[in-house]
Specification:
Number of domains: 1
Order of helices and strands: HEEHEHEH
Largest sheet: 2 strands, parallel
Bound molecules: calcium ion
Helix content: 40-55%
Number of strands: 4
Strand order of the largest sheet: 1-3
Strand content: 5-15%
Structural class: alpha/beta
Oligomer: single chain
Distance between the termini: 67 Å
């Protein structure tokens, strides 16, 4: 193989790898925050701990990959949409107030 062919293969591989692994298209969806209250500080603490503190399972959501990767298309939730989903799940009776027992049920305590 001559020098020119090796150079062309190298450049083509580099371009293909960069083009396929450098593309990340993300879309964030969000909505206005719900008006939710808590009947106690403990209820709020349990709710926020469950909703925003990562679990301690030790699993890593990242990954390590070698070589060219496919373009990455992701959809993610905005912070208010995440809060609203959690609040709807926690507020079992739908009265707009999360009680301590509702927060504990939501947290699986
Ligand atoms: Ca409630």
């Amino acid at each position: 193989m001559n020098q020119r062919a090796i150079t062309q293969i190298f450049v083509a591989s580099l371009a293909a790898g960069c083009m396929s692994s450098c593309i990340h298209v993300g879309k964030i969806t969000d909505e206005p925050k719900l008006a939710v209250s808590f009947d106690s500080a403990q209820a709020a603490q349990v709710f926020y701990d469950k909703t925003y503190v990562p679990d301690s399972s030790g699993r890593n959501s990242g990954y390590l990959a070698f070589g060219p990767m496919l373009p990455k298309f992701t959809k993610s939730e905005g912070s208010q949409l995440r809060f609203n989903k959690a609040a709807r799940a926690a507020d079992a009776d739908g009265d707009g107030t999360i009680s301590r027992s509702e927060a504990e049920d939501y947290a699986g305590m």
